[in-house]
Amino acid sequence: MRPSGRATDALRAITIETGVSRHAEGSCLIRMGDTHVLCTASVEENVPPFLRKTGLGWVTAEYGMLPRATTSRNRREASAGKQSGRTQEIQRLIGRSLRAGIDRVALGERQITVDCDVIQADGGTRCASITGGWVALRLAVNKLLKAGDVKSDPITTHVAAVSCGVYGGQPVLDLDYAEDSVAGTDGNFVMTGEFGLIEVQGSAEGATFSRGELGQLLDLAEKGISDLVAAQKAAIS
């Protein structure tokens, strides 16, 4: 029995509220159970120096957690003067994942920065950031299309992410913190809307896992991605 009482293949309750930031070109608040992430997408009419005069656009991301997103206060990284290795790793993952669903030629020489700020954490913050980040990105691109700033849609597919792991000896979908903190195996799966794999992160925390168990986790991930893409479609409709 999972602590939440969910079936092994059930996501936490998910809601995606759009238009939550007045100034950002695209924004949403994604809630996956008790994990809540504010995602905003900002368009800039320039690109990093290494892309100037290439005709290619760029999508990047930044990630952070508010001090009381967790059970005890975490010091703001800005006050420490540097980002943690975890923060840097997660925001690079978000950026890589979102770029996998973008035609950078069609985007043109402009940059879209997706900011993912964790308001409340209960496991799976990087996955929620990717899933919500795509919605914010989609809304920002819609504005570019409506204004005629881009001629063809640079977004080629949905991108979403979900965690899977082995909890209590059983493969389960979408781990919350109670499960994640004691899981024997913990993994994050980033996929396109057609289940193309973008990135797989998996580690044996308490015991090794078999190739067969990895296959079970992939099956669970596909079901989760299907449900998350449906939620993305509902949010932008």
UniProtKB/TrEMBL annotation:
It is an enzyme of class 2 (transferase). The keyword Nucleotide-binding does not apply. Phosphate binds at R86, G124, T125, R126. Its EC number is 2.7.7.56. Residues 11-140, 159-224 form the Exoribonuclease phosphorolytic domain. One of its GO terms (molecular function) is 3'-5'-RNA exonuclease activity. Belongs to the RNase PH family. PANTHER family: EXOSOME COMPLEX COMPONENT, EXOSOME COMPLEX COMPONENT RRP41. This is Ribonuclease PH. The gene is rph.
